[in-house]
Amino acid sequence: MYNSFTEENLQWKQFVTGDEAAFTEIFKHYSKPLFNYGYKIVQDEELVKECLQELFLYLWKSKSSLSVNVVSVQSYLFLSFKRMLLRKNKQQAKVINLNRKLYESFTVEYSIEQVIAERELVSEQEKLLASALQKLSSRQKEAIYLRFYYNMSYEEIGEIMSINYQSLRNLVYKAIKMMHSHLTENNASGENKISLGSFMSILF
Amino acid sequence: MHHFENFELEDFVLDNTFRNWVLRPNYELEAIVKEYLDKQPTKKKLVEEARVVVLALQVQEKTLPEKEWEQIFTQFKSSLQTESSTVEAKIHTSGKFKWFKYAAAAMLVAAASFFWWNNQSQKKVNDLQYVYQTVYGEIKKITLPDSTLVTLNANSKLVLGNVWTDSTDREVWLDGEAYFDVTKKINSGNKNFYVHTPKMDVQVLGTRFTVKTIRDFTRVVLTEGKVNINSPQKLHTAILMQPGEAVELKNKQVMPVKKAVQPEYYNAWVDKKFILNNTSLKDIAAFIKEYYGKEVKFDEESTSQLKLDGTSLPVEDEKTFLSIIEQAAGVHISQTKNEIFIGK
């Protein structure tokens, strides 16, 4: 998502040594992606916006103690943001809820689900895909989202999700395999005709 | 060996090249997939299934209105300023020499990390495509890895397709309009610079020029140096261009047309200017559509025929631009969010 890997690391280095312009660029590049990511962890627009400001203010204040050599600026920011959001969300929840899962959910709205909700005529295949998507776990959704939308490597995603490389790969591969088998097994006729015409027209 | 060799469905879905083909196809990606399917026709079904999975995994993002983002940015800036003023006060109290010591240490770390990210970038570059993009009303200056300067016009996209090393050709793909000031490579041998568009491939021989490719219109204007125009579909032989020439391809034309032009008229946008040279309001309307992304309507045909001459207009601020046109042409301009109405 960034212009280049080198540019990103250079900017980070400039920021850590006190360059406000570089820091502003980092904010500009990451505020929207972080908001999008954060909103999937906590569906509270105000809280996500608040955390965004707080994260960057915290970074600026503590820049002298930050490492110049951060391996991936992207995963560093995503992980810090996630932690902050979860902590704040916990504080905000006045009612004590010991169900930890609540804090680790990842809610994604897929385009196809919206298409189905808005349209009267839905093809058999679109229904199959939507039901397959519902079977994905929170963690599978998160991993695929980070991989697809931010071009993150497994190493970066692993860092953000605290999971090792091999488990992460399995997690993602399983998710896609499941979707694939859903798509083919449920297609009764041997002629595997796939058309997503109406769905496509919304995407483009 | 083909990039997709031995790919299973999961590999396709997770592959950047493949996903780009599904979501942002261009002729280059089309060729990669076609080459694979020509060799492996039995994989057609698998490719189609993978395509469907990629599409199904498209996410609907929660979007905030642009105004709100402006507020978020303003708040960010103001909290920075409050923070900076307190930090400055602290620095004044510390000794000069102490500061110098820290700076030297920081430089050492910086030098070490330079080596690190230099190596790292080579590895990463396949995952991260280099994409430069502008929105309506935005002109961006970009320095490419070889220090070639590119000015990207509004609503345009430039993609660097491969790793740029000393031994490879430099290749970019353009959609929209861009002005290039290409750095000559020292000891270059045959390391060429190519600008690819769907209908023209521009082979650069060290030079300054503008390429525009919007829908069915492609044009190259050469200011300095030499370029060769090739047909990606091999529809014609190479056309060598001289400074002061333009090569244009419209609609379904096969052969590009070459003509003599004054490049400064075509490159004015690089300096964020629009030159009026016996220019009709109709031409200005076409510019407004391309640059600001707004549809222009006239009260009657005769208004669109009005011509303006003799000056260059700043384009950076839309309001200023329109108000100058309004005064110079003696017309009345009103606008809604996506439409501009010009009447007498």
Could you name the CATH class of the largest domain in chain B?
Answer: Mainly Beta
Count of DSSP E strands of chain A?
Answer: 0
Helix content of chain B: 25-40%
How many independent structural domains of chain B? 4
Anisotropy-based shape of chain A: elongated
Number of strands of chain B: 20
Structure class of chain B: alpha+beta
The CATH homology group name of the largest domain in chain A: RNA polymerase sigma factor, region 2, helix turn helix motif
Quaternary form: heterodimer
Mean pLDDT of chain A: 81
User: What is the gyration radius of chain A calculated from CA atoms?
Assistant: 20 Å
Number of helices of chain A: 10
Give me the CATH fold name of the largest domain in chain B. Jelly Rolls
**Run of helices and strands of chain B:** HHHHHHEEEEEEEEEEEEEHEEHEHEEHEE
Provide the CATH top-level class of the largest domain in chain A: Mainly Alpha
The low-confidence parts of chain A are 98-103, 188-204
- Content of β-strand of chain B: 25-35%
Fraction of residues in H or I helices of chain A: 55-70%
